[in-house]
Specification:
532 residues, alpha/beta, Rossmann fold, 3 domains, 6-stranded mixed β-sheet, 4-stranded parallel β-sheet, 16 strands
Length: 532
């Protein structure tokens, strides 16, 4: 009986059981560019970025040419790092088990000294371990590839650092002493930037014995083409009638190919939305509106993936402050990996280098972060209270009356913040509009920020409410000429989205300004412009 395949967001993916992106090209490139060259390297990517899936597939891909030892440091307890003897024992046992699984026909080549280390908890040191590993690499007829997954679970243990130092020494002397042909360490934290708390001197956390590693440059995100190929397999099995290229593009727009997020959207469309949403038919679910609905659900679910994000933001407040400034103030922050906050956010996969400046890695991360930062202020914000208390006035026949939303925002903003200084308005204006908007659309609609237009002067907000989109430009007033250019840009943006009506909110610090709302026409486009 053929097993029904599903989309997977927990653990490694298997093509027999899961719909997944095909990894053939990636595996071929890793083998040719890294393994065949005898490289030692680190696959350092964010949570659920496909590291474990890649290693599992690579183990099978390499088995004809190499003896692959696949270890997982999650299987090692804290007591196994207590001292060198304990680590030598458990590591020896893991290596023996891995070799017997990978190459059972040559398990007799395992040296007795390695078996002795595995069986006697009081015997041996790291030196003894590496002497035995070197004998094993001499005895086994195939080159040995060592893969260690979740290696950062051992990162704050001195014995692990000492293990890396030994491995480095054998790597440098491998023309004289046999050792692993290639070594792959996989984890979230970058080995060379671990915050080790082993002794008090700050210099230690920057001193890594892993400076022998070759830089791993392979893109592990999914392209639109890869997503489309995965959807083709699903369509062949289920015949939902989706427009594969359109859905692949829409999923990519929200995720930028982040593997977990791609699979999470597809899983939501396949398993969660049918029967539980206003979209009734499979072809409606597997549509642009369906993807938006799936994203809306993902943004509010308490998944371990996002719980990890929140925990890391609280653990590293400098990273949280950086993301807040980029999102709400439109600050152009240079992508400088020497800055700890930038290095951390990049390591976790939350930001990318966008032409020299920091950009949040994908639209879902942006929306989740916006919602987090806004939620921290909801209880104390008066604009939020105004919108929350009167939100039903903005709905008419199930549609959102955006004209009225803008009108009431101007009114409430004047009443509450009319006496604030320019600096406050410039830094807080956009955040205050989003705080006001959030309770109005909460639970039904969604919003995101168009990254290409976000800067200190301009931010475009796209609101999606039951499949209807509204384009709102938030900007700081920099004179009439700049304003005219903004109106023209918004009209062009409306044309891109096939919309005839858009909205502009200008935070104007000119003391002689004329505040209020007016309707202007740019060609065939109508813009409702509010000046505050």
């Amino acid at each position: 009986m053929k097993m029904k395949r599903r989309f997977n967001i927990t653990g490694a993916c298997n093509p027999q059981r899961h719909y997944m992106v095909r990894l053939d090209d990636r595996l071929k490139k890793i083998k040719e560019d890294y393994i065949d060259e005898g490289s030692y390297f680190v696959i350092n990517r964010g949570r659920q970025y496909g590291k474990t899936t890649t290693l599992a597939a690579l183990e099978t891909y390499l088995k004809d040419d190499y003896a692959v030892l696949a270890l997982d440091f999650q299987e090692i307890g804290a007591e196994d790092f207590a001292d060198a003897s304990a680590f030598a024992r458990v590591f020896s046992a893991m290596v023996i088990e891995a070799l017997e699984i990978a190459q059972p026909s040559i398990s007799g080549r395992i040296p007795e000294s390695l078996r002795n280390l595995a069986e006697n908890p009081a015997l041996g040191s790291l030196k003894d371990l590496f002497t035995s590993l070197s004998k094993m690499c001499t005895n086994v007829p195939k080159p040995i590839v060592l893969m260690i997954d979740e290696v950062d679970s051992a990162s704050n243990n001195q014995v692990f650092i000492d293990f890396l130092a030994q491995l480095r020494g054998y790597y440098l002397a491998r023309e004289k002493k046999a050792i692993f042909h290639s070594v792959i360490l996989a984890g979230v934290y970058d080995i060379k930037n671990l915050k080790l708390k082993l002794r008090s001197d700050e210099e230690h956390k920057y001193n890594s014995p892993w400076n022998i590693a070759t830089k791993f440059n392979i893109d592990m995100s999914f392209s639109m083409g890869q997503i489309a190929a995965m959807l083709e397999e699903y369509e062949a099995d289920h015949h939902v009638g989706m427009d594969i290229d359109t859905i692949a593009e829409e999923i990519y727009r929200y995720t930028s190919g982040y593997p977990y997020l791609v699979s999470a959207i597809c899983k939501m469309l396949d398993e969660e939305l049918p029967g539980n949403t206003w979209l009734e038919n499979p072809v409606d679910i597997w549509s642009e509106k369906g993807v938006a609905e799936a994203v809306k659900h993902i943004l509010v679910e308490q998944a371990p993936f996002f719980e990890s994000m929140i925990r890391q933001l609280e653990e590293y407040p400098e990273m949280k402050q950086l993301l807040n400034a980029v999102l709400f103030q439109g600050k152009r922050v240079s992508y400088n990996p020497d800055l700890p906050a930038v290095s951390l956010a990049s390591m976790f996969g939350y930001i990318i280098n966008g032409k020299g400046s920091i950009q949040v890695a994908n639209r879902i991360f942006e929306m989740r972060l916006y919602n987090l930062f806004l939620a921290e202020e909801e209880l104390t914000n008066m604009l939020y209270d105004k919108a929350q208390g009167n939100k039903f006035q903005f709905l008419s026949d199930g549609r959102l009356n955006m004209d009225l939303v803008i009108e009431k925002f101007v009114l409430y903003f004047r009443d509450i913040y009319g006496e604030q200084d320019d600096k406050f308005l410039e830094e807080q204006g956009r955040k205050l509009f989003l705080l006001y908007l959030k309770p109005i659309i909460n639970g039904i609609g969604n919003y995101y920020i168009e990254a290409q237009t976000r800067d200190a002067r301009r931010t475009d907000v796209i609101v999606d409410y039951l499949g209807e989109q509204f384009i709102i430009e938030l900007k700081v007033w920099y004179g009439n000429e700049y304003n005219k250019r903004g109106e023209k840009q918004l009209a062009e943006y409306l044309d891109y989205y096939h919309k005839d009506r858009g909205y502009m909110i200008s935070f104007n610090f000119n003391k002689s300004k004329k505040t209020g709302i007016q309707e202007i026409c740019i060609g065939t486009k109508t813009i409702i412009e509010a000046v505050i």
